[in-house]
Write the structure tokens for this entry.
Amino acid sequence: MSEDKVVCVTGASGYIASWLVKLLLERGYSVKATVRDPDDPKVKHLHEFEGAKEKLLLFKALSKTLAEEAAWKFAKENGIDLVTLHPGVVIGAEALPGPYKLVDVRDAAYAHIQALEVPTATGRYLWEDKNETTQQFSKERAKSLGINFMPWELLLGHGYTVKATVRDPNDPNIKHLHTLDGATERLHIFKANLMEEGSFDSAVDGCEGVFHTASPVFLSTNDPQAELIDPAVKGTLNVLRSCAKVQSVKRVVITSSTASVFFNERPLTPDVVADETWFSDPDFCKKSKNWYALSKTLAEEAARKFAKENGIDLVTLHPGFVIGPSLHSKLNLSLEVILNIIKGVDTFPRPYRFVDVRDVAYAHVQALEVPTANGRYLLVGKVTQRCEVLKILHEHYPTLHLPEKFKAADCEPTYKISKERTKSLGINFMPLEVTFRDTVESLKEKGFLNF
Ligand SMILES: NC(=O)c1ccc[n+]([C@@H]2O[C@H](COP(=O)([O-])OP(=O)(O)OC[C@H]3O[C@@H](n4cnc5c(N)ncnc54)[C@H](OP(=O)(O)O)[C@@H]3O)[C@@H](O)[C@H]2O)c1
């Protein structure tokens, strides 16, 4: 789309502009960026972005901020097609307390690209995502640029009433759900078990959208049929049967996995770009005793068949290895693997398919809200080797003792995963560095890491 296009970014050393340069390079643009001093160590990070060596040129430019009025006057007089963006307080992943008009820096960077790429973009765009003041600001024009804003509280934050099922409503591990903004008024907890027929009937009744995420997630088991496959497959059919009984459900979104995509005989060499046409092979899963992959593969197969036979609008999402900050204090399987990498317990060199939990949650909302959403969506921000993970961790946390020495061979190029379909859902994956930093901070906060 943007291959071979050249753009100019002024003030590239800045917070938003740095993200913008990174995003533009990732999209294949050649970037001419102006900074006050190209030799200033403050701009070193720009050279480290992927593609910077080939496609980033830094120019020295001593510029003053042009007043908006002067810019509009000059653009009018000189026939320049001008768009101005007016974000609120731009912040990173952490929310600030206080009366701010907040917008995420990644949305701000993305908006700049949209302002260039959307042919109808014109005039002024005022926006912020979460208005902490009493004033109201319209997001309509920003939305017309395709800006969906990073999620703050997702479904509850989007004004939905949420019926959520858990196995045990008295489990202290679900306490965090009650503290979410809007939970008192719009969150209703239901008791349900995948293995109990009809268990989901009352929760599903009256719902427009159903997100089926519940499924056992572990890798070692003595009884794969009873512990993994039955809850995954029979549980999915159980939920779908509840959906088929009511008129209200317009779409079902199932959290599948890359486990139902990649377990087959196809080679994953560095030249491969895998996409949603890939399917795991149940016989291959059985032969390799990958019971989790088998459970997700059979569950997806059964869901697709049932949806077709019963006229259910079904979307399946296939996240890779999900990491990022945790809202509760339990350690799930994927966060445990990150802990093991940090502690040097997991030393197996293999590529990981990482995705941020916030992108996964957002993709679920988009899968329901985007009218044209259909079929399968692979959710993988980046396929990378463990050595890159350690490099990121080392850069951000030099004092963190990483027990393992890594061989250069660990960092060989890997296969890639197409993001085309996911982009059509409006998902722009978070950078791995941000995800890792927030994962480590979250693990520290919950007491799983001490340094
Ligand atoms: N984490 C990843 O890297 C990853 C990657 C791709 C896909 N996924 C998929 O994402 C979904 C959520 O995974 P997660 O990582 O969030 O794992 P998790 O924290 O272990 O969540 C699994 C959920 O499934 C529920 N569950 C399991 N067996 C059940 C049963 N018999 N009846 C009712 N509920 C049951 C669990 O309830 P309890 O709390 O009561 O046990 C829990 O709420 C799963 O479908 C998983 O396959 C995860």
